[in-house]
Amino acid sequence: MNKEKGKLVLYSGASGVGKGTILKKLMERDPSVKLSVSDTTRAPREGEVNGVHYNFVTREEFKRKIAEGGYLEYAEYCDNFYGTPTAQVEQMVGEGCKVFLEIEVQGALQVMKKYPDILSIFILPPSFDELEKRLRGRETEDEETIRKRLEQARLEISVRDRYKYCIVNKDVDKAVEEVLAVIG
Length: 184
Hints:
Rossmann fold; alpha/beta; five-stranded parallel beta sheet
């Protein structure tokens, strides 16, 4: 792997916009693209693997790591904590990787304050109706959680102008090409 300093890419969008699908295709196309694996206190969804999709930790573990200054950013979202482990990100960037921080807006705004020049990308749905259709189509959450995610999506989409790049995910392959063009 290239030993030059890598890039840190702030990557956000409302739940259900296809961030994960785009990122998976990016990693297939460019081996230097890596995902920072966040810690979370939420329970794993079916098929999620600890250390791959998230580091699943207890609330106590998460709070201890906050106290130790172990997060680049962290936030509480839909009654669970999510955070980016600092040491892991620094190591990957140092190895020359393009490290994607796939985080929600609350945490992203924290990172933007610390790193105002960070490369930031916001993924948008083609429409709010399409976003709701995608969330319901996953069939992984109850109605109350879907309602919370839709409310949160409205708030998140309202701050999209804080990001350097906004990409609409109407067609996944086109969105992948646009992200590749942005990250170089």
